[in-house]
Amino acid sequence: MAMARTAASAVVRGTAAGCEFGKPLFGAGIDPTAYMGLLQRQADAVKAGDMSGVETMLMTQANTLDMVFNRLAMQAIQSPLMQQMDTLLRLALKAQSQCRSTLEALADIKNPRPVAFVKQANIAHGPQQVNNAPPQGTATSERAQAGADGGVAFAHGKMEKISNELSGVGRELSTKGRTRRFRNT
């Protein structure tokens, strides 16, 4: 169980991967325990709402991706073979796209987009049946049920006349000579 808990830890997995990927840059001298402690502190800072480390990382990555783009674009210009030039330009444009995505993520962190809570949008190209019923057990659901028996339907908090009535027990709606069947919900 202890080994499973260790393997399930994102910080432990990140430490293992970071140490391996860091070997070409820093050699085998990275202390995994110290590295894991730093990763945990960074994660705790993000949980507490401090996004400065994430912002720094994203800006650094965007800068690096821009350098990759420029390097590959320069290599493509100097390439004598069309196929090699094409490959280098494709890789350069992928790096440019990743740079843009990284900067968009940074912009979203710095300036979050407003959130819109939309109750419901009913868009159909043809017949559509919409049942707007409140959760069971509420006073409005009981009024809606009583109203449904009396020939009115509950829609967006108001009692309205039914414009399309179902044709009895089979739950069918007739439209232009065609009959559509609806499941009981």
Could you please describe the fold and organization of this structure?
The protein has 185 residues and is mainly alpha-helical. It folds into three domains: 9-50, no CATH class; 51-111; 132-162, no CATH class. The protein has helices at residues 2-8, 10-26, 32-47, 52-78, 82-110, 139-149; strands spanning 152-155, 158-161, 172-175, 178-181. It has a two-stranded antiparallel ribbon. A two-stranded antiparallel ribbon has the order 3-4. β1 and β2 (158-161) form a beta hairpin. The protein is flat. The two termini are 44 Å apart. The relative contact order is 0.06.
The amount of helix comes to: 55-70%
- Provide a count of the helices: 6
Biggest β-sheet description? 2 strands, antiparallel
Biggest sheet: strands side by side, in what order?
A: 1-2
Question: How much of the polypeptide forms β-strand, as a percent range?
Answer: 5-15%
Average pLDDT number = 80
The value of Rg in angstroms is 30 Å
- CA-based shape: flat
Q: Would you identify the regions where 5 or more consecutive residues have pLDDT less than 50? A: none
- Spatial separation of the terminal alpha carbons: 44 Å
Which structural category fits the helices and strands?
A: mainly alpha
Which H/E pattern describes the elements? HHHHHHEEEE
Provide a concise account of the structure shown:
The protein is 58% helix and 9% strand. With 185 residues, it is mainly alpha-helical.
Features:
58% helix, two-stranded antiparallel ribbon, 185 residues, mainly alpha, 3 domains
